[in-house]
Amino acid sequence: MVGDLVARASQGLVSAQAIGIDEGLVDLEDLVGLGVDQHQDVIINLAKLKSLSVSTTGDRPKSSATAVVDGATIFVSLEGVIDFARESERLEKEINKLDAELAKVSKKLENRAFLSKAPPKVVEDVKAKHAQFSERKQKVQANLERIKEMS
Length: 151
What we know:
Number of strands: 4
Oligomer: single chain
């Protein structure tokens, strides 16, 4: 994990905005194995973090993203980084657009005249579009649910 943070910072992949990271570790030995305890100041500096707190409890803070790395659960606070209301609104608009697209392709697929007269390749393309829109809608819906849980 330390290497990942240092690598991301040196490659300019870490956001310039300061964020907080909380770690909830199952075992204090895991923490020592990751080198977090020895390099906390370096990690904060290189990763441009606002804070880095370490605890032995794994309670997930509200408004945080979660990742599991080498047996450690890492919580990245998104408070102040993401406007949850605006992101929810954006995702809801995207779902509405996807619903409209799904309605269009569904209407074509329900039209017997279209299905009987259109070349098979065109029908397959419409079916593929329907599958893509459905999959995208499911992903956006899942993201919206996660955002609502965090806010």
